[in-house]
Design a protein that fits this description.
With about 425 residues, the protein is an all-alpha fold. The chain is built from 17 helices and no strands. It has two domains: about 250 residues, no CATH class; about 100 residues, no CATH class. Helix 12 packs antiparallel against helix 13. About 35% of the residues are buried.
Length: about 425
């Protein structure tokens, strides 16, 4: 009974971090001398953010603005699980270069316990984020990873979780100049705060926030950024502050008389998270190989996505696709398939949460097998949404593999679920063969 109360108290206690979503943070309570002492703020905020997602869906349902799309929601969450798994395993390894520069090459010692250092860091990190984000759109090599975040044809809070697995390994380079004067503990904290703030601005239920719009990035501004209409391209890169866009000429106002079309200019017809993570990289390499000379082959990687030989680095608007309407990719699924996907995605989410628990050793071979099973499950769920002809046999193989390798690390109910799933797919395959 006490454990039950403690669990409920822990869940409700998670709401106390809700202010972090809006950068409402007490600097005196979040200043640390050592970077190792900085909490995992992203972990702390997840419960509050998922409550916000539920609230957004309730508002949309009540207003009857549009229907809920399971395939798009699950795909965005699949990218989040893959990205978060990498973040948990590597435990901030990308910060090591920053820490090394600060320890050996810093030119100015800002006091770690000064509130002024806290505010300077907040502004400096956001300034760097503007250039990180702008580069991710204006350099094809970086865009090949960042495009994952823009691949949804919807715009909602869950899209904020749709991230590239590899993007942060490239982006962290833009923050390294801060290591010459900003303590690592401050940087690690504000790097998290900056990204957390950007979660809530992925929504259509908030329209205009008045004077707030002049200074801060808001859903209104970020809707433009996510649009593939011609006027939306390469605009509104700011993280927390929209002032950077106003200052550097990349700001665009939302047009009331033009519906924003979300997604990539040429959007992939797939919900397979692995495909969505890598297809643009393959396209980029193919595009480079197709160029007529070595100079252009290399230029493909560092010039913009719309560049062509003879054009400016970012291309010209007259040669860009102007998307004005789109039929969303939405293959129909049977009710039993939707139920199956929800069930197995819930199992993936359950085992993913175990990664956050200290006793769950990520280096253990069984833990590694669990991570592989989760990744395979998310990929096959995407194939099911795509109605791939290979999805049923691949899912049968995955479920059988789970029963063989992993049945001893989960409770019996999960094992029975996988056993029943095997029977279901055997029946489905034989049913298909009988008709074929």
């Amino acid at each position: 009974m006490n454990n039950t109360y403690e669990n409920y108290a822990g869940l409700l206690g998670g709401l106390k971090h809700a202010g972090m979503l809006f950068y409402i943070i007490n600097p005196y309570e979040n200043v640390f001398e050592k970077y190792e002492d900085v909490p995992d703020y992203q972990l702390q905020v997840w419960f509050s953010f998922f409550v916000l997602i539920a609230l957004e869906n309730a508002i949309i349902y009540a207003k009857k603005e549009k229907s809920f799309r399971l395939n798009d929601h699950v795909t965005s969450l699949s990218h989040w699980i893959l990205q978060e798994t990498g973040r948990i395993i590597f435990r901030g390894a990308e910060y090591y270069a920053y820490i090394s520069i600060y320890q050996n090459l810093r030119i100015w010692n800002l006091s770690w316990n000064s509130v002024w250092t806290w505010y300077v860091t907040a502004i400096a990190v956001d300034f760097c984020y503007y250039w990180v984000h702008r580069a991710n759109h204006e350099v094809l090599f970086l865009w090949a990873h960042h495009q994952v975040h823009h691949s949804s044809e919807e715009f909602n809070l869950v899209v904020g979780l749709r991230q590239s697995v590899l993007q942060h390994w490239c982006s962290f380079l833009f923050y390294l100049p801060l290591a010459f004067f900003i303590p690592p503990s401050h940087f690690v904290a504000h790097h998290q705060f900056n990204l957390i703030y950007q979660l809530w601005i992925h929504t259509t239920v908030i329209h205009d926030l008045g004077p707030f719009e002049w200074i801060f990035n808001t859903p209104k501004h970020h809707r433009v950024h996510h649009g593939c209409n011609l006027y939306c391209l390469d605009t509104n890169y700011g993280g927390v502050l929209i002032l950077w866009d106003r200052l550097f000429g990349t700001f665009a106002e939302e047009r009331k008389n033009e519906e924003i079309i979300y997604g990539l200019v040429v959007n992939p017809q797939s919900y397979n998270p692995l495909f969505l993570q890598v297809f643009y990289v393959a396209s980029m390499i193919g595009r480079s190989l197709g160029m007529g000379n070595s100079r252009d082959k290399l230029a493909v990687y560092w010039k913009g996505p719309s560049w062509q030989p003879g054009l400016p680095r970012l291309g010209l608007d007259e040669f860009k696709v102007n998307v004005t309407s789109r039929i969303k990719y939405n293959p129909r699924m049977s009710n039993w398939q939707n139920f199956y996907i929800v069930l197995h995605f819930s199992l993936v989410l359950y085992t993913h949460v175990q990664l956050y628990v200290e006793k769950f050793e990520t280096q253990h071979i069984l833990s590694g097998a669990t991570i592989i099973n989760n990744a395979c499950a998310l990929i096959i769920i995407g194939l099911l949404f795509d109605r791939s002809k290979f999805a049923n046999i691949l899912e049968l193989i995955r479920c059988c593999s789970y029963l063989y390798f992993l049945k001893n690390i989960q409770n019996s109910l999960v094992t029975y679920t996988y056993a029943a799933s095997c029977c279901l797919w055997i029946y489905d395959i034989f049913k298909f063969l009988a008709v074929w």
